[in-house]
C-alpha cells in the first residue's frame, strides 16, 4: 500500500507542469530593450533552424518602439512554431519543452524575461478579469491536488467568449486548447497580463 501511494505521488509529480528547473535569479519583465541578440527562428513546416542576427543597424530608420499589440503578436507567432513539440520536463527548445518553458521562451524572443516556473510567472503582470481577456495574456491552472499553480498557457485567441491558449501537456506536447474544455475549465485559476 505504501509503495502504491508513493508511486501515485510520483506520477502526479510528473504530470504536473510546474517545472522547478533552476535557471538562476531573473529580473521582472523588461519590455522593448533594443540590444544586439541572436534569435532562433523555426520554420513551422520544417525543422530547419536558422540563426538571425538582429541589431540596431538593421532597424535604423524605423520606429524602435513596438506597440504592445505587435509584441504580443510576435510572442504568439513564435509560440505557435513549437506546435507538435514533445513534452520535456524543464525543456525550452524544439527538442522538448514544458508549459512554463514554452511561455518563457516565447516571451524571451521579444526580450521579455519572465520567471521560469509557472507558479512564479503568476506573480508577474496584473490580474485581469476573465471578461477582459486578450490575446497575449497568460492563463494559469491548478492541475494537481496541490493548492498551487502548476500549469500556464498563452492566450492565442479570445473571440466571442471562446478562449484558446497554447501550452505544453505531458500527453500531447505543445498544443492549442480551449478554455471551454471541461478539464481546463475546472482547473482554471486566473488570467494575468504582462504586456
Automatic annotation (TrEMBL):
Biological process terms in GO annotation: proteolysis
Region of interest (Disordered), ranges: 45-68
Family: Belongs to the peptidase C40 family.
Signal sequence region: 1-21
InterPro entries, alphabetized: NLP_P60_dom (IPR000064), Papain-like_cys_pep_sf (IPR038765), Peptidase_C40 (IPR051202)
Classification of source organism: Bacteria, Pseudomonadati, Bacteroidota, Flavobacteriia, Flavobacteriales
Keyword field: Hydrolase, Protease, Signal, Thiol protease
Single annotated GO MF: cysteine-type peptidase activity
Domain NlpC/P60: 69-195
Pfam family, one: NLPC_P60
The protein, known as: NlpC/P60 family protein
Bias (Basic and acidic residues) ranges: 45-56
Naturally occurring in which organism (per UniProt): Aequorivita antarctica
Origin: domain of life: Bacteria
Amino acid at each position: 500500500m505504501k509503495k502504491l501511494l508513493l508511486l501515485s505521488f510520483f506520477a502526479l509529480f510528473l504530470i504536473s507542469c510546474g517545472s522547478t528547473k533552476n535557471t538562476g535569479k531573473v529580473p521582472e519583465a523588461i519590455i522593448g530593450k533594443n540590444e544586439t541578440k541572436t534569435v532562433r527562428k523555426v520554420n513551422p513546416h520544417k525543422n530547419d533552424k536558422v540563426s538571425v542576427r538582429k541589431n540596431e543597424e538593421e532597424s535604423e530608420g524605423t520606429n524602435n518602439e513596438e506597440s504592445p499589440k505587435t509584441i504580443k503578436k510576435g510572442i504568439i507567432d513564435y509560440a505557435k512554431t513549437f506546435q507538435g513539440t514533445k513534452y520535456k520536463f524543464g525543456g525550452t527548445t524544439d527538442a522538448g519543452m514544458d508549459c512554463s518553458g514554452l511561455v518563457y521562451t516565447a516571451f524571451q524572443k521579444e526580450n521579455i524575461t519572465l520567471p521560469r516556473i509557472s507558479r512564479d510567472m503568476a506573480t508577474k503582470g496584473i490580474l485581469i478579469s476573465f471578461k477582459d481577456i486578450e490575446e497575449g495574456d497568460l492563463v494559469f491552472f491548478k492541475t494537481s491536488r496541490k493548492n498551487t499553480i502548476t500549469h500556464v498557457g498563452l492566450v492565442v485567441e479570445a473571440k466571442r467568449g471562446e478562449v484558446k491558449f497554447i501550452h505544453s501537456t505531458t500527453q500531447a506536447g505543445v498544443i492549442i486548447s480551449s478554455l471551454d474544455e471541461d478539464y481546463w475549465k475546472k482547473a482554471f485559476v486566473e488570467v494575468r497580463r504582462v504586456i
